[in-house]
Every structure is written in C-alpha cells, then in structure tokens.
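Hey,
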Amino acid sequence: MKQLLQNVRNGRLQVAEVPVPQVGANRILVRTEASLISAGTERMVAQLARKGLLGKARARPDLVKRVLTKLRRDGFWATFQSVQQQLDRWMPLGYSATGTVTAVGEAVQRFHVGQRVACAGAGWANHAEYNAVPELLAASIPEGVSAEAAAYATVGSIALQGIRNADVRVGECVAVIGLGLLGQLAVQLLRAAGCRVVGLDPIQQRRELAAQHGAELVLPPTDAATPAIRQFSRGLGVDAVLITAATSSNSPVELAAEIARDRARVVMVGVTGMNIPRKPYYEKELTFIVSRSYGPGRYDLQYEEHGHDYPPGYVRWTEGRNLEAFLDLVAAGAVRPEVLTTHRFPIDEAALAFELILKGKEPYLGVVLTYPTDTPAQPPGRITIRSSPPKPISKDTLGVSFIGAGSFAQSVLLPELVRLPGVQLRGIVSASGVTAKTVGTKFGFAWCASQIDEILNDNETDIVFIVTRHSQHAPMVCRALEAGKAVFCEKPLAINFPQLEQIAHTLEQFPGPLMVGFNRRFSPLANEMKNFLANRGPLQITYRVNAGTVPSDHWLSDPSEGGRIIGEACHFVDLMSYLTGAPLVSATAAPPDGADPRNETQAVFEFSDGSTGHLLYTASGPPGWNKERIEAFAGRRAAVLEDFRKLELIDESGRRRRRRLWNADKGHRAMLAAWLAAVREGRPLISFQELFLTTAATFRVAGAQPHSESQKEDGP
C-alpha cells in the first residue's frame, strides 16, 4: 500500500510502498477514501523535522536532557548510535481519515466489514491507503455524509472538546482567536450550539469565510477589536474565549484577557505562547484551561490501545463519542466542513500538498488527500526490498528474520548482527508495516511484511529473532519452534507461569535451539570478574540497579505486558547465576516499605553451591547516576563492576587493579556471535533449565505465583 512518510533527520517526504498493517484484536482495518492534513499541527511537525540538529535541540530540550543523561552513563558511542537510530527513521503523518472497514479483530463488536467509518489518532489514522485503527478511535459515518466531510471528524472533535471545556451556554457570547481550520470549525460548532460568535484573525479571507458560516462579528486582532467586542457583548465582554491560533506569539493570551468579561473562561485549543499576564487574569478571576486534544481517552493506553471505554454515566464525552457527535452535526447540516476545503491532492502527490502548506505560496485552509477506489481488499502479504539470491547451501550461512523492528532491534541487535559473517537477512515484520519497510531498507533485508506467517513459512529463514512487546514473546516463541526455526527471543522469555510452561511443553515436541537475550554474561568485564573470583568458594553478590522512572503512559507500565520487574530483572538474575556457575534454588523478594512494587523491589537469591545474590531494583535514584553496580565477594577477594564500563578487582592482599572502557560493552556482539556458532553446531547456548529457572525466579520477584507447586524450585 502507499503511505506518506517523513524522514526525521532531514524532513524529506516520500510516498512509500509499505506492508498493510496488522489487524489486532480490538482493531479494524480501514481502506482509506480521504484524509485531512491538519495544516497547523502537521506543519509544525514537518517544520521541526526540517530543522538542523541545533534547531531540533532548541525545540525539544527534554530530549536533549535525556541524551546527556545517557551520555554520562553509557558513553559517547552508545549514545551516538542511539541518537542516530532515532534520526534515521521515517515517521508516518496524519491523524484524521475516513474509509471503509475491510477486516475486524476478534474482539471488535461495534463495526463490521463494509461499514463506513471516520478514524482518529496520530499513528493510527495516517495518510495511507490502509489503516489499522483501535475500535474506540473510530465512529460510524451517518448516511448522506461524504468521505471528504467525514475526514474532518478528528479536527472537528478537537474543536468540539475545546468548546466543552469552555462550558458555553445557549445565548452566550464567545470569541474565537485564530480562524484557521480549527477556528473555522469552532465557529460553526458554536453557532450550532446557539452562541453568538466573534472571530478574530489577521487574514481577511479567513474572516470573510467565518462571517459566511456563523460568526456575527469578525475583526483583525488589533487594538480596535476590544471596544468593538465590548459593544457587541452589550458592554460585558465575552463569556468565553477559544484560542485556536498557531503562533509562538503571546498576543492571543493577552488579547483573550482584554476581551473577556469578569470570571470568563479562556480555553487554549491551538498552540501559542503561554506567558499568562497575571494582572488582567487575576483582576477578572479568569479561568484558563488547556484543552487536551479530542477528548477523554487521549493518551490513555487502556482506552486507546486496549479498548476499555469509560462509562457514559461518568465520562459522557470521550474521543470516540466526540467523533460521533461531530458527524451527527454534519449529517444534520448544522456543520459544513466541506466548505473549508481549498485543495485536493491524490495520495501520490501528498508531498506536493505539504510543500503547499510549508511554503505558503498560495492561500489554503482545508487540504484533503484522496485515494484510489480500486485498491484490492486483500493486498499482498510481503513487499520485496531488494532482489536476493537463494541462500547458499552452506552450513556457515544462516538466513535470519526479525519479528519486531523497534528501537532495540535497530540500535543494538541489527548493527551488531550485520557485522558478523555468514548471515543473510531475509524478512522483517512489524505490526505497522512502516517500521518493517524502513528498517528493512536500512539494514538490507530481502523483504518486509506485517504478518509473522510470512517468516514462519519462509524456507530460507533458519533463525527467527523475536523483538516485540513482552506479552507477545511466548506465543511467538512457540509458533517459531513449531515451524522448525531456531529462536532468539529478547527478554523476557514469558510474562507468567502458564506461558513459561507452554514453552517447556512446546520444546518437548519441537526441541529446536532457543536463546534468550541475556547479553550481560557475555560482557568482557563481567567475564573478567567471573575469572577473578573463580574457585574461591561461594560468592556473595550485591546487585544494585538504578532503573529510573518510566512514564505511566509507556507500554512498559502496562500490566498486560508483565511490568518492569519481569521485563528487566531477569537480566540481573541471569548474570548472578552465570557468575556463581551454580543452579538457582530459591528466590524471595519484597518491595521496600511504601514503594511502588511495579518499580521497586528487593530480592534474595540462593544458589546450590551456597552463593547468595542480593538485588536492589529501584526507580528512586538520580537519573544521571550509574545504572548498574555489581559487588561480588569470595575467598577474601572483591570485584566491583559499574555499568559494564569500569571494573575494580581487589585481591586478598588488598592490591587493586582497575580497568575502564571508553564505552559500555554489555556483551551484545559476543552474545550474537556465540549464538550463531551454537545454531551452526545444533546446540543450545544456554540450557533451557537455566532459562526456565531464571524466568521463574523473576516471576517470584515480581510477586507472581507458580501455576503448580512443582514449579517452585525445580526446572522442567
């Protein structure tokens, strides 16, 4: 399918051929008929991408801070690679589209194939021939509403949510500052709500358009506007102000205070300067509200991605219900978004549409992209990236495919893998399809797709790398083993005991090579530490992890993904097991008093040789401090390893030896090389019993209960 993409590094636009996205359980697949370019928001995104590194840094100081933190902790090279990976990617554009449903997920109840829908959401309702959209981010299009009009539904919902935040009443006087696309829709909606509307904009054509469709008074935002508005409002000032402008200037916020009545409501819907002048806002006791996009549910993973709706009795207007309300108003003729369309471009010419918006050589307002009506209902499953000869018949050449193409695959695994001999990159799959195409092109894969069956059925794929979200690991491991593939699974292997038991059962029937990405045991400094303490008796290990905080809306915080402890603590358990060289026999844990058990834990591990490991995993430490510190003691010797960059060894006489690397080496390259060698030899790199015990211990640390009593101490 065709989709509009923008390069993050240089802002270049292209209409690329990418795989059709996967249809998840609560998603619908929509064949697009029209999509709207939100001139304000998407222009700013495009302009940011076209800035140089200095311009990007000035615009996003939050990202600069994160880069500096990583630099202090991981070193220059690791930080440089991470930044390059973020820049060398193509991002989808668009968030307001409409079309016809061609497939539905198994959990979808509100929609059926053949239904016309409007879709919302950045990353979901893209400028693309097909979009996989969460059920709650779509709304049925009433009969008689055109595809072009329905394409305005998301932007219309943004305006509608701003009006709801303004809490307007019939007969009230409302000012709209900024008569671009968002402001024009707000004017029409306010008129439909029975309000008297004042429109302010420096561009005469926009003022005239607003006057034609609901504004009783239109003015340029000059000093003369205030007395005119006061007269229009019968000497009171306006009851509410909607700021829908897009400017870095602070003047809209200042103007709002001048024209508002005492105790009025000011709602920021657009993007402007927000240096609120205290005196007029204080003296009038004005309420200032920043409207959050298109309604409750925005930025809520449970709502947007998992389909958990809010009860209407408690949250009447959500993202989805605002979409429905806007479309109802369009169907009734109360709102006419199609009159705002100034330009139409076919999807093939989408880059030209953005050039129009970015350069502004001619007036524009609503810019709509159109799509061919003869696209196939079942598009092809894979897209060829480069012509690739059949894999040579040689034991040293391995066909490698990836399920998942996220940041870890791009910044860590693939850069190391392509440097190793005897590897032929076959297929790469991602749910969106876009990432698979861009990453596959960058690293030289033969083809890309959005369905994992394309990989499982590929006879020239020997090894499958699973680098997806954690909840998907175990099911995909089982399917790949059943397909006869060697499997490399990024940690964790599973997120609960039933999943782990299923993998054990699958391995009994399909005993293929299985590896989990426990890279730390392959770190050169970790191995030097192990050798220094070898044959000195049981080890006493203290492992402190300064994990840092994760935003609540990040997928790692989603309980359905197992949580941070399960997702990461397995690394530390594995390294302690490796250092001792003895089987793990018990694990006990408890979060510190008053701490969040999802982000904090203290655990004790006992090993069969008498070794003991203590783990402190905390999100309470300073972000710039080192992340991992391991102290190990045995036979009057001590070793201290910090972030796999610094190692200090102290022998029984007190003599110290120090090693320092310029950049952290967590063992990824050595792990991959060892894994490829193990596959060629048909042997496991780490026994499944070790993988099982480490994973099970992590579950106990996270508070999960074994599925059966027999799993508490023993492996499979």
